[in-house]
Design brief:
heterodimer; A: about 350 residues; mainly alpha; two-stranded antiparallel ribbon; 14 helices; about 75% helix; about 0% strand; globular; B: about 325 residues; 2 strands; disordered N terminus; ABC_transp_permease (chain B); Ribose ABC transporter permease (chain B)
């Protein structure tokens, strides 16, 4: 396209909401995890139809919900082309803040304190990444040490003052067969989706990840976008920490540790691009459901549950690698056809 | 990952060289490991002023011995970071090599067990490298998946009850004492220093080492220059895996105990040592000497915290602040 010729783009053919939604999901890499989820739950129900009973549904929901929320927090950082190594430490810190503050403040007060801590943690990361120009992976490595230290300072062994009412609100049942944890995840995920897809600011989050220079040239403020993204991520992680505290009824300064690697694994399975700019909320939630349930599936299938680590890794590799290999094969065969003609 | 973090240079306030004062120019020319050495000396002097018993050669050596083990575990990470990646499979490669070595030692004897454990690390690294370089998966995702996979393999394969006897072959290069100028030194310290010099020589003076830096800083330029980028990356991860496996054997030899979670503290610890040593997480920058110095700094913090009985909380807090300080000093390249 030389600068002298002006091409008027042909109007895009209007497509229905379902077509455009599918197109969007394919762009964000969500089709593979959705497919994996369907297959996985087909297998799960075949092995253990008991999942659909009240008790099992509820315990499964409580297993998935914190992972899903924390992974959504990680997804936001991945969308802007970064990675959050401190996410496990933020989870631990928010978890102990909620569990200890609930004694003095009432539950809403503790919730607000917990969210404030999460947002503040995100803000510190965000300022250092956006305004001091440090690489996200190194900044969050440093703050991971700091946040984990603070968590252990607040509460150095599992404990806290959580009551069974908290369990009812975070991890009980809303009505029979509807675990409330899933309701919270659905509400938060929908809110996040509206923020990312239906607000101008949310579109900037994707924009910063796929072309930061372009966002800047358009007169927008990529630094502010990065800062706000880190803060929103911290807020969502803090909500995940609340669900975690509610379902276990303990505050634990090490409770967030497994979520560092697990949240990254979920985001990888969701098909998001770690270079930034592509990632799906639905894909992330479903990927969390799959990876969160592998251990349970093996338990019901009567297989040594240590296999879950191997199988989780293989699921990630299969879902992420097979589409790439497929693409490669199609490309090669197209090249070969072109060569023969 | 690096490209997306490249910012439009709106605040690259790079003054002309003449405008800089002599001191600023001196500081900017200081090799990066120098900052780590400066921090270490500062910490050592502070510790010595507060507690004179620390200001002695034996005090220095006990810190350096602790640092040597962390350094050995971080050498592989250094290679992964230099080529623009990261190796998060270090913890369970350590566990795999250590537990595998002890298990195989019982049936095949120490020499074959050692070779098998190292070969295992090599294979782990090669698989990482092939997935990163040929399939194009992000290093973070690849190595996290590998780390999870190895955890399962370790839990499934290595019985834990009989793992206490460490053969002499391994203690001879880890926990054995040597007499050096009247001082008792665990041999792991000179061994780690020797390994550092060897690896640094490979990085600095071989074609492979130089091309590793090129691939890490400008992959497209390396490709245009005709470098076999994929092969360099795969061999880099292979060496990284091999060194992590070696670290597992060193750790089991020095502490003479092994368990499935023994590598976990090296997940963030190895990356921290590499960063404090002056490597860039964007790739293309880093050195083995720097990594050893980084491990020394973290080791000195651990010593001070232990002597003044401040607890693990304070240790983590100081680790975080030191990493931030080092990043602020020179983490802002390419922006």
């Amino acid at each position: 396209m030389s600068p002298t010729t002006t091409t008027i783009p042909a109007p895009m053919p209007r497509v229905g909401p379902i077509r455009s939604g599918t197109r969007r999901m394919r762009y964000d890499g969500a089709l593979a995890p959705v497919l994996a989820f369907v297959v996985f739950f087909g297998v799960y129900l075949a092995v253990n139809p008991g999942l659909l009973t009240r008790f099992q549904l509820q315990s499964a929901a409580n297993l998935i919900a914190p992972l899903a929320l924390i992974a959504l927090g990680q997804l936001l950082i991945v969308l802007i082309g970064g990675i959050d190594i401190s996410i496990g430490a933020i989870t631990s810190l928010c978890n102990v803040v909620f569990a200890t503050q609930i004694a003095g403040l009432s539950a809403p007060g503790a919730l607000l304190a917990c969210i404030a801590v999460g947002v503040l943690c995100g803000a510190i990361n965000g300022v250092l990444v956006a305004y001091v120009n440090l690489p996200a992976i190194a900044v969050t490595l440093a703050t991971a040490f700091i946040y984990a230290a603070l968590a252990r300072q607040i509460l150095d062994r599992p404990g806290g003052a959580l009551s069974s009412e908290i369990y009812q609100v975070t991890s009980g049942e809303l009505v029979p067969f509807v675990p409330i944890a899933l309701v919270w995840v659905a509400l938060i995920a929908t809110g996040l989706w509206l923020f990312l897809q239906r607000t101008a600011f949310g579109r900037q989050v994707y924009g910063v990840g796929s072309g930061r220079a372009a966002v800047q040239s358009a007169g927008l403020k990529p630094r502010l976008t990065i800062l706000v993204t880190f803060m929103v991520s911290g807020g969502i992680v803090s909500l995940g920490a609340v669900l975690l505290a509610g379902s276990t009824l303990t505050g634990d300064p090490r409770s967030g540790d497994p979520y560092l690697l697990n949240s990254i694994a979920v985001v990888a399975l969701s098909g998001a691009a770690f270079a930034g700019g592509r990632g799906s909320i639905l894909g992330t939630v479903l990927a969390a459901a799959v990876l969160g349930m592998v251990g349970n599936l093996l338990f019901f299938a009567g297989i040594n549950s240590y296999w879950q680590y191997v199988i989780s890794a293989l699921i990630i590799l299969a879902v992420v690698v097979i589409p790439r290999v497929g693409q490669f094969v199609i490309q090669q065969s197209a090249l070969r056809r072109g060569h023969h003609e | 990952m690096s490209d997306t973090q490249t910012v439009v240079a709106e605040d690259a306030t790079e003054g002309s060289p003449s405008a800089q004062s002599g001191l600023a120019r001196l500081v900017s020319r200081m090799p990066r490991a120098g900052w780590g050495i400066a921090i270490f000396i500062a910490l050592f002097v502070i510790g010595g002023l507060l507690r004179p018993s620390l200001f002695t050669l034996p005090g220095l050596i006990s810190t350096a011995t602790f640092a040597a083990i962390l350094a050995v575990a971080s050498y592989g990470q250094t290679i992964a970071v230099i080529q623009g990646g990261i190796d998060l499979s270090v913890p369970n490669t350590i566990a795999f090599a250590a537990l595998g070595f002890l298990t195989w030692n019982a049936s095949f004897g120490p020499v074959i067990a050692l070779l098998l454990a190292l070969a295992g690390g090599l294979v782990i690294g090669i698989v990482n490298g092939v997935i990163v370089a040929k399939v194009g998966l992000t290093p973070i995702v690849t190595t996290i998946a590998m780390n999870g996979l190895l955890f399962g393999v370790v839990l499934l394969n290595f019985p834990l009850s009989e793992l206490t006897v460490v053969p002499d072959l391994v203690t001879s290069f880890t926990s054995a004492r040597v007499d050096l100028a009247g001082l008792q030194i665990a041999i792991v310290l000179p061994m780690a220093l020797l390994l550092m010099l060897l690896l640094q020589a490979v990085l600095s003076y071989t074609g492979w080492g130089r091309s590793l830096f090129l691939v890490g800083s400008r992959e497209d330029a390396a490709r245009l220059a005709g470098q076999p980028v994929a092969r360099i990356r795969i061999s880099g991860y292979a060496l990284s895996g091999l060194l992590a496996a070696f670290a597992g054997i060193v750790i089991v030899g020095y502490y003479s105990q092994a368990e499935t979670t023994m590598g976990n503290s090296y997940l963030l610890g190895s990356v921290a040592a590499v960063i404090v040593g002056g490597a860039s997480m964007f790739g293309g920058r880093g050195s083995m000497v720097g990594t050893f110095v980084g491990a020394l700094v973290l080791g000195q913090v651990a010593t001070l915290v232990a002597v003044f009985n401040l607890g693990a909380t304070m240790q983590n807090l100081i680790y975080g602040l030191i990493i931030l300080a080092v990043l602020a000093a020179y983490g802002r390249d390419r922006t």
